[in-house]
Amino acid sequence: MEFEHDDPVQRARPYHAVREYTGVGAWSKEARHRAVEAGYEAALILAQTADLTNAVIAALIRARFELPAFSTLERITKHVRALAHRSCAGRCLTG
C-alpha cells in the first residue's frame, strides 16, 4: 500500500504510534494548563525569560507531554510573566 501524503488519517498514524510507544501525550488543554501552572510558579521566583521557558519545558517533560512549537512556549512564558508581575504589583499596592 502506497502512502498518501494528502490523506490526514495516514499522516496522523505515525504520530499516534510514536506517542503510544513512548507513552508521551499529545499537546492538549491539560498540557497547556500544566505549562501555564509551572510557568506561573517559576515566574514568581525567576526573572529571566529563558529560565521561565526552561521551567515550562521541564514541567511538560516530567508530565510526559509532547512539547509545542517554540512560539507557543514563548506566548505561554510572556503570559505567565505578566500574570506574576500583576500579582506582585497588586500585593505591593494593597500592602
Main features:
0% strand, mainly alpha, 95 residues
Please tell me about this protein's structure:
- By secondary structure, the chain is mainly alpha-helical.
- The chain contains four helices and no strands.
- The protein has helices at 8-22, 29-43, 49-62, 70-94.
- α2 (29-43) packs across α3 (49-62), α2 crosses α4 (70-94) and α3 (49-62) crosses α4.
- It is elongated, with a radius of gyration of 18 Å.
- It starts with 7 loop residues before the first helix and ends with a helix.
- The model has no long low-confidence stretch (mean pLDDT 88).
- For the record, the count of structural domains works out to 1
Mean pLDDT, as a whole number? 88
Helix content: over 70%
How would you spell out the order of helices and strands? HHHH
β content, as a range? under 5%
The N- to C-terminal Cα distance equals 69 Å
